[in-house]
Amino acid sequence: MITTKWNVENVDNIKEHPAIKEAAMWIREGEVIAFPTETVYGLGADACSNKAIEKIFEAKGRPSDNPLIVHIANKDQLAQAAFSWNETAERLMERFWPGPLTIILPKTERIAERTTAGLASVGVRMPDHPVALALIEASGLPLAAPSANRSGKPSPTIGEHVYQDLNGRIKGIIDGGATGVGLESTVVEVTGETVTILRPGGITKAQLETVVSEVKWDRALLESEQAPKSPGMKYTHYAPDAPLYLIEGNAAFFQSRIDEFQGEGKTVGVLVSEELASQLQADEVKSLGSSLQVEGVAQKLYHQLRAFDETEVDVILGETYPIDGMGEALMNRLLKAAGNRVIAENNERD
Ligand code: TXA
Ligand code: MG
């Protein structure tokens, strides 16, 4: 398949752009198109068509028991995807849409079985990106879209990542430049007035608490390999080619781990804040910016994980961050990328 690449970075009047019209035409024909959102690039197709959704799974090489998020451009489209929503969900939408919040709701008949992997519920969000909104609106359809990476790879934060993973496997890529948040949306379930976070992401728990009285946080669910409520959490995700270990300890301890791996003849890469980078000696150092700017660290994470695939490192050692605010989503993704391998000062490597 020939993959068309449209560059729409910085264009004025995106809604009228020929790329959007052509891409929307392909979507209506049941094809798959990658597009930017404010979180990561998505791989979009008609959420109402089993055949179109099948093409997403084929392109990604992803197990099809994993439900996809449905993207809408306006509140009118919500009723096409979701059967009902309560007042708490309504408040979340008012406050956080468009934005990186996915809300699990009972699905309508229209949403294809393949989109929700047979579940009676559907995850819906309205992305905060002009290109995404223009494409959804022009196609006139709710778009199912997982992150636009091959299964297991870090999610794409620039058009080039999508091209590397999916060129020849999909009809088109709309390149809108770098995404903003850099990590995926927060996924929540709403029961009465209680909101439960199923996947941490671009909207923090503290932000949710500004509009709802009770936000639950099942860490056991998030960290377990078998997360029943959010099936996507159980697969190894976001991983670079070389194994990643997270190091918990001070700079001296971190350096001693580098030295140990090098002593085994390994080429060692480190993925750390700029503060720690200045204190370490390794074969390859990639910085995530200042550890005081956790949003900046989150934004750079997938980009730098992918950048290690262009190097010859045998192993990557990464820093850990406080589990607070955006640090929650950041550590969730780091632990997944590391397959939960953490080397702490008083722990053995597993
Ligand atoms: O930021 C994002 O959310 C990106 C961009 C492209 O919008 N999309 C994304 O999609 O991350 P995906 O398919 O990679 O992740 C979907 C997540 C998974 O953890 C999945 O299990 C959960 O949402 N999910 C989707 N529908 C669900 C449902 N009905 N019940 C429970 N979890 C659901
Ligand atoms: Mg993904």
Descriptive report:
The protein has 350 residues and is α/β, with parallel strands linked by helices. It has 2 domains: 4-222, DHBP synthase; 244-344, Threonylcarbamoyl-AMP synthase, C-terminal domain (Rossmann fold). Helices cover 31% and strands 20% of the residues. An 11-stranded mixed β-sheet has the order 1-8-2-3-7-4-6-5-9-10-11, sandwiched between helices. The chain has a 5-stranded parallel β-sheet with strand order 14-13-15-12-16, with helices on both faces. The N and C termini lie far apart (43 Å). Mean pLDDT is 93; it is low at 231-235. Bound molecules: threonylcarbamoyladenylate (TXA) and magnesium ion (MG). Residues 37, 39-40, 42, 66-69, 100, 102, 104, 116, 119, 121-123, 127, 145-147, 184-185, 187, 198-199, 229-233 line the site of threonylcarbamoyladenylate (TXA).
Mean pLDDT: 93
Amount of beta strand: 15-25%
Unreliable parts = 231-235
Structural class assignment: alpha/beta
Name the hetero compounds present.
Answer: threonylcarbamoyladenylate, magnesium ion
Main pleated sheet = 11 strands, mixed
Going by CATH, the architecture of the largest domain would be: Alpha-Beta Complex
Question: Given this structure, which CATH class of the largest domain is correct?
Answer: Alpha Beta
Q: Estimate percent helicity.
A: 25-40%
Q: SSE order, as H and E? A: EHEEHEHHEEHEHEEEHEHEHEHEHEHE
Gyration radius, in Å: 20 Å
Tertiary shape: globular
Kindly report the name of the CATH homologous superfamily of the largest domain: DHBP synthase
- Termini separation comes to 43 Å
And the CATH topology of the largest domain? DHBP synthase
Number of helices: 12
In spatial order, strands of the major sheet run 1-8-2-3-7-4-6-5-9-10-11
Number of DSSP E strands: 16
Count of distinct structural domains: 2
| Assembly annotation | single chain
